[in-house]
Automatic annotation (TrEMBL):
Pfam families: FAD_binding_3 (PF01494), GGR_cat (PF22578). It catalyses: phytyl diphosphate + 3 NADP(+) = geranylgeranyl diphosphate + 3 NADPH + 3 H(+). It comes from Durusdinium trenchii. Keywords: Chlorophyll biosynthesis, NADP, Photosynthesis. Residues 97-130 form the FAD-binding domain. Pathway: Porphyrin-containing compound metabolism. Its EC number is 1.3.1.83. InterPro entries: BchP_ChlP_pln/prok, FAD-bd, FAD/NAD-bd_sf, Geranylgeranyl_Rdtase_fam, Geranylgeranyl_Rdtase_pln/cyn, Geranylgeranyl_reductase, GGR_cat. Residues 273-334 form the Digeranylgeranylglycerophospholipid reductase catalytic domain. SUPFAM superfamilies: FAD/NAD(P)-binding domain (SSF51905). This is geranylgeranyl diphosphate reductase. Belongs to the geranylgeranyl reductase family. ChlP subfamily.
Length: 511
């Protein structure tokens, strides 16, 4: 799920997070947020990612991973034996670093593309080549140029964002956008396929198969042995596939919130949200309203701890919601957004129903030996906005760049210390924003009174400018002390007003 939301938050003038050096066998410390002495409460808006502890397990490591049917030892003949190469040692002539990327979404496809393009022998395993993830599908403007995406991959250029409060108060928050600025709306099946095919064109071997598990190296320098069902040539949901194995030096787990790679490397569990979405075709006159507009609804009726959305696609709208604290009630909240948006989606016909878990924070461990997690598998989804597409693709590419650099474009073996370098860089760059967005969610998503205050603050031009600049270009904008102080005072006043008013505002009717 990926979205953008006006976000009045603490005006944090954060110095870059400095990750302490990590000793072998220990967990990387959580990034610390350094601020100046003048911090205005609730002022800056930001949209970026990750805050939790980077690290790896210090537990004893078994030589074999738990497979689907118990522990299995893989017997190898002398003829199939591989040359054992220690980290930092060059491979024999003609041999390249072999990397398996499990999962072909934005994270996996971007990692595979970068690896293959830079000379690493790359295998990309994806079970569903037509996957339609229940995702709002919003991408920032900077992603189009940064990832060299064709303009026609964007279904809609959204320049109007409407925030709708629990009492249906509407605030238009796109007024600060320039003529050439917009939020891109994409369909995941289109975006993901483009990224995978580009990786294939650049040299990655694309495998249509279901990853079943892997055997971890028995000793230093040994290969990972991946087992998967190869679906090549088969179609439909009843595919059985042919069981195959693949030996590689490095594994990148980009297989989503239910990552099997994470399970095999004992990366630990994390809290997750359930996202539920219905794609609907609506009458032409109503679709005209959404041609360049997206809507975000807040209220206890649509989500107790998140927001609901109506996002436009090429010829339909995506209507959905999400929650962490009441997963069993997701159908009730979906009915809530249908009811709230009824005047604008009346006559709509459901063409697809989608549901999926969305991580709420990074996993306890994201790397073990020569296996590492990226994207949703690592937990790189922001609080409040639920944005994940850009950060998934970014984490995959950054991880691949680190591997390419430390392997000298695939001619040397790498180890856990090389992969930890990527985690330190990631946490340093995006850690502060995770902390800020987590704080924002705790303040404004707790009650309908707080949500009313939140929508009221979104009327502020300063909030809108900082929010959109931060979201579109993935850089923290603002740093206007006067603006921060004014917004801080208005935030406190608004929260006090709505939490202490004796008679709630009446429910409005949407036009």
């Amino acid at each position: 799920m990926s979205g953008v939301m006006a976000m009045p938050v603490a005006a944090v003038r954060a110095a870059p997070v400095q990750a302490a050096p990590v000793a072998r066998g220990s967990a990387a410390p959580a990034p610390t947020l350094k601020t100046s002495s003048s911090v205005a409460v609730m002022g800056l808006a930001a949209t970026a990612v990750t805050a939790a502890a980077a690290g790896r397990s210090g537990r004893a490591r078994n030589g074999l991973a738990q497979g689907l049917h118990g522990k299995q030892q893989v017997k190898r003949s002398l003829s199939s034996a591989k040359v054992v190469v220690c980290a930092g040692v060059n491979f024999p002539e003609g041999r390249k670093l072999r990397v398996a990327v499990v999962g072909g979404g934005p994270a996996g496809a971007s990692a595979a593309d970068q690896l293959a393009k830079d000379g690493v022998e790359t295998f990309l395993i994806e079970r569903k080549m037509d996957n339609c993830k229940p995702c709002g599908g919003a991408i920032p403007l900077c992603m189009i140029d940064e990832f060299d995406l064709p303009k026609d991959i964007v279904d809609r250029q959204v320049r109007k964002m409407t925030m709708i409060s629990p009492t249906n108060k509407e605030v238009q928050i796109g007024q600060t956008l320039k003529d050439d600025e917009f939020i891109g709306m994409v369909r995941r099946e289109v975006l993901d396929d483009f990224l995978r095919q580009r990786a294939k064109t650049n040299g990655a071997t694309l495998i249509n198969g279901l990853f079943l598990g892997m055997t971890l190296p028995e000793k230093k320098g040994d290969s990972y042995v991946l087992t998967y069902n190869d679906y090549a040539g088969e179609e439909g949901n009843a595919r059985k596939g042919e069981k195959k194995t693949l030996e590689v030096d490095v594994v990148i787990g980009a297989d989503g919130a239910n990552s099997r790679v994470a399970k095999d490397i004992e990366a630990g569990d994390y809290e997750y949200a359930i996202a539920f979405q219905e794609r609907m075709t609506i009458p032409d006159n109503k679709m005209e309203y959404y041609k360049d507009r997206a809507e975000m609804y807040v209220g206890e009726d649509v989500s107790p701890d998140f927001y609901a959305w109506v996002f436009p696609k090429c010829d339909h709208v995506a209507v959905g919601t999400g929650t962490v604290v009441d997963k069993k009630g997701i159908q009730r909240y979906q009915q809530g957004i249908r009811d709230r948006a009824a005047p604008r989606i009346e006559g709509g016909k459901i063409i697809r129903v989608e549901a999926h878990p969305i991580p709420e924070h990074p996993r306890p461990w994201r790397v073990k030996d020569r296996a590492i997690l990226v994207g949703d598998a690592a937990g790189y989804v922001t609080k409040c906005s639920g944005e994940g597409i850009y950060f998934a693709a970014k984490s995959g590419r950054m991880c691949a760049e680190t591997i390419v650099k430390n392997s000298m474009q695939g001619v040397r073996m790498i180890d856990e210390a090389d992969l930890m370098e990527h985690l330190r860089e990631w946490d340093s760059r995006y850690g502060p924003t995770y902390l800020v967005l987590d704080l924002l969610q705790k303040i404004f998503y707790t009650s309908d009174a707080a949500r009313e205050s939140f929508v009221e603050l979104c009327e502020e031009e300063y909030v809108q400018k900082v929010t959109f600049d931060s979201y579109l270009y993935k850089t923290v904008q603002g740093n206007d002390p006067v603006g921060d102080l004014k917004l801080g005072w208005k935030t406190l006043s608004s929260l006090y007003k709505y939490n202490n008013q004796k008679t709630p505002d009446p429910m409005r009717t949407l036009a």
